[in-house]
Amino acid sequence: MVAGELIQSPFLLLLLLIVAFLYASVGHGGASGYLALMSLFAFPVAFMKPTALVLNIVVSAISFFFYYREKKFDWKLFYPFTITSIPFSFLGGIITIETHLYKIILATVLLFAVARLVGLFGKQKGEFKPINLPLALFIGAVIGFLSGLIGIGGGIILSPVLLLLGWADIKKSAAVSALFILVNSVSGLFGFISKGGTLPISSVSLITVVVIGGILGGYFGSKKMNTVVLQNVLALVLLIAVFKLYTT
């Protein structure tokens, strides 16, 4: 089936809604989840990157709105990463890589997402440290480039880094990651378009689904919500996608 026909799958739409809900609940846009689903449903790689970026922009904006409203956002924690991530995300968006290499990089990032979902790292520390500016600038550049290259926002990497380094708590890292994802996704998308890339018109029908999931996830996540079971289910889906990407 072509991408337009695949989009009509009720099962895919349901999974997209769940992914948007879960990711928005922790301040993420969900690109790694959308890419995993598109890989499982055998979408063309040319369709995956721009579609994931568009959906990421929508959901991360919604998630940020709810976390900002709860006064969880910290500008001083946000801007050092973004200074370098935006130009490097644009650079990554310009670059088109061979399909096999794209799948390997994506699968590796999805493993990172699985680890984040099941809590293998990124636990909140009791004491917080002042941010190290040079290190934050470097981390922002690396995450930004990777984000633009494969079509993610980078929050799935940034939020556990913030927790591991003791620079933020869970709620604050979610708020910072949400806006970080938004600006990186926009920059990566501009980079993609600047090289002649086009947005698949058929992907527009997916936006309504992720908007619903994003609103619900952002609202409940910015409050207090336990989604451990659903997160473990999503982690299993991502692992299946990783296996598929590594073996095809």
From TrEMBL:
InterPro entries, per this entry?
TM_pro_TauE-like, TSUP/Inactive_protease-like
> Which of UniProt's keywords are assigned here?
Cell membrane, Membrane, Transmembrane, Transmembrane helix
One Pfam family name from the record?
TauE
Primary subcellular site in the record, as a coarse category: membrane
Similarity remark: Belongs to the 4-toluene sulfonate uptake permease (TSUP) (TC 2.A.102) family.
List the membrane topology term(s). Answer: Multi-pass membrane protein
Transmembrane domains' residue ranges: 51-68, 77-95, 101-122, 134-167, 173-192, 204-222, 228-246
Put simply, this protein is called Probable membrane transporter protein
Cellular localisation? Cell membrane; Membrane
